[in-house]
Amino acid sequence: MTVWVGTSWKMNKTVAEAEGYARGLLTGLDGRRLGAVQPFIIPPVTALSAVAGILEDDRRVLLGAQNAHWEDNGAWTGEVSVPQVADAGAQLVEIGHSERRAHFGETDETVRLKVAAVLRHGLTPLLCVGEPADVLAAGNSAEFILRQAAAALDGLSGQEISRVLIAYEPVWAIGAAGRPAEPDELRAPFAALAHSWGHQVAGLLYGGSVAPDNAATLLGIPHVNGLFIGRAAWQVDAYLNLLDIAADTAGCRIPDPIDNKTTSRTRN
Fold this sequence. Notes:
It holds the Pfam family TIM. One of its GO terms (biological process) is glycolytic process. The protein starts with a strand and ends with a helix. Helix 2 links the parallel strand 2 and strand 3. The protein is of the alpha/beta class. It has an eight-stranded parallel β-sheet with strand order 7-6-5-4-3-2-1-8. Helix 1 packs parallel to helix 11 and helix 7 runs parallel beside helix 9. It contains twelve helices and eight strands.
């Protein structure tokens, strides 16, 4: 079972800062035993090519883009396409983050189009789903995120869905104002995701106020097989520490039935 542990830097780091992080990460990985842990980093688009040049001969770390348009080219001023981020070195693309939905008008339909475009070009979609605080308070978290996931994956074949990663990121738990989720708040959403998609997708990740003091607990929640980390991993030493925690936790974990199904499918 692959344990996905990655970080998106959002609108942070210059090219020089991103290069320094990437070099430090590779140096820090030397001699480390990651086991089943698969690291990935998602820098700003301005740094993609530079970071890709550092990582390309190493292959231990996957590189992602924070967004891409659903059209391959055209009159979309300010946008970047999937072929463009792939050309810059991206191997996966983050799609549907709540900040994109809230501030840039992304809808379930545009998210669906982006997922399809990423798959069409052979990259891995990292689909973000998550509910706001009022939905949590009403007890409708699982229903909300299942609706988001279903809309994003609508019309895809089983083979295509098997290449998708889903990151559950509750809106109330992310960002500087977010609060860490209690494990009991995550069990039902992950059980629902696992029941509907866990045997089909490549992995179910959790993101939202992830830190060294709660990473092992989060990975111990049934059906969580990865972490999508924000500011707690923006310094390379902090990210390496979180990778160590994930590797230690994964080494002690007994896979649940959904994990076994996923592992069997992805190896075939």
